[in-house]
Amino acid sequence: MLIKRSPNGIDLPFPSEITPREVFEARRSFIKQMALGSIAGAGLLEMVNREAFAQAGQKLAATPNKSYVLMDKQTAYKDATTYNNYYEFGTDKEEPAGLASTLKTRPWTIAIEGEVAKPMTLDIDSLLKLAPLEERVYRLRCVEGWSMVIPWIGYSLSSLIRKVEPNSNAKFVEFVTLADPKQMPGINSRVLKWPYVEGLRIDEANHPLALLAVGMYGQVLPNQNGAPVRIVLPWKYGFKSAKSIVKIRFVREQPQTAWNRAAPREYGFYSNVNPEVDHPRWSQAMERRIGEDGLFAKKRKTLMFNGYNEVASLYTGMDLKKFF
Ligand code: MTE
To answer: Which domain, by its residues, includes 39?
Structure first.
């Protein structure tokens, strides 16, 4: 991932297209070759083997939800778990798969507070049991211009929201994620102001598509994908889907979110996937599907709301060029 320093001193990423997948794959294969040639120890070779980075997770049973089945081919597990954005573990796509192994996901609690009748702190095991786990296959489109198709496991965030009984002041929901410098080497960088925070309007959070995810591909979430609990919002750019959440706050005002704070002209609060609103530094009209990105692979047309038109009514009457 290339980083550009902006006038206000905040590091901004360029789209991943500048570092195409084949380039980083080649770089990784080069490192592997080097290890093969110069280091005899099988243990070290193992360290540079990306298969080893894709952690074999614990199995997690879930019932497929037929409303969220896609015809699209699913992204390979090894791609989904080795090409990640998780800046707390480095800004290169391949870094989180290795560095996030230090993340301790148990014990883990998640505090739910603010404008609610029943604030509560849940441990991860209670959260897992709060509603039946479903498998839902969602597309996720990154703001950088690539997308994946992943079988997630979780349940609608609305199931959790119902339990805490938000009051009429709860207009927005804020997701605060873990920021522990002892476990997360990326926290020492100034690339973002930590913790990574995201937010939604309450009606967006209550939309059935908004998923509280605890697993993927039939297993618990790998650390690099946001273990032990993250949000997945398939109609919004990937950065809205906060990973490793420790707090959910119900608030009156629109929360200050990490990327909006870092570069407000580039990353709006809504960040709905919208091929008609370009990022100031690149077009959003097309996307690369990870796994289809060989030298001659065609790009796909990006769809409004990433193809999830059922959310359109949330934005009736809003100018989505202004509220990007
Ligand atoms: N959550 C945290 N805490 N830190 C991050 O850096 N990156 C976001 C989002 N959630 C990020 C995060 C971005 S930019 C994307 S595209 C998605 O996570 C990537 O999720 P994935 O690695 O499962 O594909």
So the answer is: 20-52
